[in-house]
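Hi there,

I know you've been waiting on this one. I reran it after we fixed the sequence typo, so this is the corrected version. Both the input and the resulting structure follow.
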Amino acid sequence: MPQPSYCRVCGAPIRWTLTKAHKRLAVDLEPDPSGNTAVSRNGLGTWLSRRPTEEDPVAPYEKLHKPHAATCQRPEPEPTTRRLGVANLADARRRRNGRP
């Protein structure tokens, strides 16, 4: 069994899958019954993902996962402070255009 990958932003374990459009999609490693992505493996061991529909519901061999983009816990950016001698051009443009 291959080792999981880890998100570069939050460090959570993820699994890379291949969609029907041959795009890569990161899903959470653990299945989630409230997920909206059906994940399975093909005969070569490649993880595949697709969106289940009413016409094509989740098959018994598929598990539901959440896309990692929906659950990624991005760290809060550090507050920025103004540096002395640096002008904020956005404020100057607003004043020039007569906006508050």
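Quick highlight: The beta strands are 5-6, 13-18, 24-28, 37-41, 47-50, 63-65.

Best,
R. S.
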